[in-house]
Design a protein that fits this description.
Distance between the termini: 30 Å
Strand order of the largest sheet: 1-2-3
Radius of gyration: 13 Å
Number of helices: 2
Helix content: 25-40%
CATH class: Mainly Alpha
């Protein structure tokens, strides 16, 4: 295991923030396409961004479920908006 030299997305600004949010949204879409229910993905502390590598790391996904149980029509847009509310 290696240490991630990342920052919480809520502490980013400018280009780093834009890159982190782009990557977060893209990864969230992949997660949903795999049929995984990212139960607590809207928590701002569950993602770190390394500005030097311009890379996003999703962490702390212990509560995610292998089978998607969200039948309420939620998609990556709704989950992403929930995430955005928690970082500001």
């Amino acid at each position: 295991m290696q240490r991630i030299h990342g920052k919480y997305i809520s502490s980013l600004q400018g280009r780093a923030l834009r890159k982190a949010l782009q990557q977060y949204k893209a990864e969230l879409k992949k997660i949903l396409e795999l049929g995984i229910d990212p139960v607590d993905c809207t928590k701002a502390g569950n993602a770190l961004f390394d500005p030097k590598k311009e890379r996003l790391y999703l962490i702390d996904f212990e509560f995610w479920k292998e089978e998607r149980t969200l039948d309420s029509g939620l998609d990556e847009e709704h989950l992403f908006l929930g995430f955005m509310k928690n970082i500001y």
